[in-house]
Known about the structure:
By secondary structure, this protein is an alpha/beta fold. It has helices spanning about 35-50, 75-85, 125-130, 150-160, 165-180, 195-205, 220-225, 240-250, 295-305, 330-340, 350-360, 375-380, 385-394, and strands at about 15-20, 25-30, 30, 55-60, 90-95, 105-110, 135-140, 160-165, 185-190, 210-215, 255-260, 260-265, 275-280, 290-295, 310-315, 345-350, 370. The site of adenosine monophosphate (AMP) has 16 residues, from strand 14.
Amino acid sequence: MQRLPSLREASPAGKRAFVRVDFNVPLQDGQITDDRRIRAALPTIRYLLEKGAAVLLCSHLGRPKEGQPDPKYSLAPVRAHLEKLLGQPVGWIPDPFTPQPLEPGRVYLLENIRFFRGESENDPDFARTLAQWADLFVSDAFGSLHRAHASVEALPRLMREKYAGFLVEAEWENAQRVLSAIERPYLVIVGGAKVSDKLPLLRHLLPRLDRLLIGGGMSYTFLHAQGLPIGQSLLEADHIEAAREILAQATQEGKKVLLPLDSVCATEFSEKASPRVFPHEPGAFPENYRGLDIGPATIAAARTFIAGSRTILWNGPMGVFEWEAFRTGTVQIARAVAEETQKGAYSLTGGGDTASAVEVAGVASQISFISTGGGALLELLAGQTLPGIAALLA
Ligand code: AMP
């Protein structure tokens, strides 16, 4: 496994640390509705402060029009929240073009980096402007590492002193436990809406895993590929062939695969729909129904599948867990994964929806590691080189 340069090896005293964080938090009426991403960066910030560095934090928020400030996406609410979490004032840097002295022991927050032209284009001149603020670079924006943007890629390439922050280090080390340093049997659980999002991950992990559980909206394309009835359930016609190939390869390599045996269904895609359970058996699944959660027979089979696994990776919910009537499958899988973890298995869950699902099920504290990454995690698990990691190692 390739080691990332660790922040513990740095000598940050008296230096200006430019820390790329991922403070892309959900906001409603100017209020932060979930501050997990901010809290995840606190160990790195506190460590740098204790070591006597001046800490300049840089993040994006949302998708403002490239190079155009938009008050809707200002990081000002994040600054206020960060002051409360840190218990100290946070200086405000409205733009990176007007130099300002940074004092050791103090924290500063730069306005949304996507307000400035050059960030999303990975412009080297813009990266040079950012480099003027930094004696050393710390990468702690795990959720953004798959983006070749100036503050993630071009800037660390320019810097001599660069380190992984504690969040990126933890994410990286935990990812290795499901990529290379694997304890067997290894179970991969995938769900969520789209087959296309998960295909690269499935292809990369298939040779490594022992057991594969596919649930959620994406599973219906796999069931269809096997000639089983799915009614009006989600179907990605373009990926039926890929699904068939994955199932054939799994059989050939002796992997155990579990697809939904039954689904909790409705005639419409609605929170208020009355749920009914049908098995995916020829003649038994009505044409006008769609699967919105895995059913009780699937949950029972999944429990025996999860039991005895030593490594469990889970990405994507088993159904439309946002709606109470279609939540049971996801909650039961979360509980079973948590129970197995209590028995000594290693578990990693990732993707925003899976992290929320684990919280909804009330078992977040029993999972070995909950990744903060969405797209970045999927790319890492698909064996791709993340631009932000490559730049750190360059
Ligand atoms: P993803 O972002 O691909 O992980 O997908 C997560 C989304 O998939 C969640 O918002 C779920 O509501 C949705 N989802 C899961 N199962 C189904 C299903 N059977 N039908 C439609 N949507 C689903």
